[in-house]
């Protein structure tokens, strides 16, 4: 299976691509895409890396696995394609943005503009079978994405890691907090948000404050406000 990934990542991850587990993973993914409906589209699997080159990474948001509904996933965690109805977690992300930074609720749920500013929108599992959440979690994606987190940790400084919910918080053990900043909160899913674990966390303003402290341009979190 062809690995369509930005050259800045390829040179840092090439040794991982050659490991037996990754070759087995690609065989599994190739077979799944040939025999099942899977998301995102094959050419979008590595979009998180293609929209956000390694040298530009300044914020990392970690999701679990892609949306499994028709046409939703676009290779960036929490993001959906243009024109797709916003899933509940994304709605809550936008509501928090609105209350935190006064940013109007956007029409587009496509988070590419964030990625292009250095926000790596990384799902721990990069593919999923249609209608079956977590269906591709076992074959090795998490070994790969944990390695990505470790590579960022080892080779960069002053990156902000946003760990939303219990699953993402487990990745904290891969991050050296003497070099990087971790900002945690509950997950934006309705289950967590409605219990008071998400709203009011101000993670977006906190992120920009931390970036400014180390002389890095803050993220412009605004998205398309009109169709």
Description:
- Residues 50-211 form the Uracil-DNA glycosylase-like domain.
- It is found in: Cytoplasm.
- One of its GO terms (molecular function) is uracil DNA N-glycosylase activity.
- It is globular, with a radius of gyration of 17 Å.
- It has helices at residues 7-17, 20-35, 47-51, 88-101, 112-115, 141-155, 165-169, 190-193, 203-213; strands spanning 38-39, 59-63, 119-123, 128-129, 160-164, 181-185.
- Helix content is 37%, strand content 11%.
- Strands 3-2-5-6 form a four-stranded parallel beta sheet. The protein has a two-stranded antiparallel ribbon with strand order 1-4.
- It has nine helices and six strands.
- With 227 residues, the protein is α/β, with parallel strands linked by helices.
| Assembly of the depicted chains | single chain
Poorly predicted parts: none
Distance between the termini: 36 Å
- How many runs of DSSP E, i.e. beta strands? 6
> What's the helix-strand series?
HHEHEHHEEHEHEHH
Number of helices: 9
The proportion of residues in beta strands is 5-15%
Rounded to the nearest angstrom, the radius of gyration is 17 Å
What spatial order of strands do you see in the largest sheet? 3-2-5-6
Characterize the largest beta sheet: strand count, sense, and whether it forms a barrel: 4 strands, parallel
Q: Which structural class best describes the helix and strand composition?
A: alpha/beta
Round the mean pLDDT to the nearest integer and report it: 95
Helix content: 25-40%
- What would the principal axes of the Cα set say about the shape? globular
EC number: 3.2.2.27
Active site: 65
InterPro entries: UDG_fam1, Ura-DNA_Glyclase_AS, Uracil-DNA_glycosylase-like, Uracil-DNA_glycosylase-like_sf
Keywords: Cytoplasm, DNA damage, DNA repair, Glycosidase, Hydrolase
């Amino acid at each position: 299976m062809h690995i369509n990934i930005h050259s800045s990542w390829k040179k840092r991850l090439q040794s991982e691509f050659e490991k037996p587990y990754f070759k087995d993973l690609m065989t599994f993914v190739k077979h799944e895409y040939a025999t099942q409906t899977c998301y995102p589209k094959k050419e979008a699997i590595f979009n998180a890396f293609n929209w956000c080159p390694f040298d530009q990474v300044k914020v990392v948001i970690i999701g679990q696995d892609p949306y499994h509904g028709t046409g939703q996933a676009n290779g960036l965690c929490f993001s959906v394609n243009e024109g797709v109805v916003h899933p509940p977690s994304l709605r809550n992300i936008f509501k928090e943005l609105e209350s935190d930074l006064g940013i109007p609720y956007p029409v587009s749920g496509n988070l590419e503009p964030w990625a292009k500013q250095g926000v790596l929108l990384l799902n721990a599992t990069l593919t999923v079978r249609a209608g079956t959440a977590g269906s591709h979690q076992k074959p090795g994606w998490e070994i790969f994405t944990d390695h990505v987190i470790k590579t960022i940790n080892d080779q960069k400084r002053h990156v902000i890691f946003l760990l939303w919910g219990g699953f993402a918080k487990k990745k904290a053990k891969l991050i050296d907090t003497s070099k990087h900043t971790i900002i945690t909160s509950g997950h934006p899913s309705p289950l967590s948000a409605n219990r008071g674990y998400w709203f009011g966390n101000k993670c977006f303003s906190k992120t920009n404050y931390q970036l400014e402290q180390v002389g890095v341009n803050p993220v412009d979190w605004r998205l398309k406000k009109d169709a």
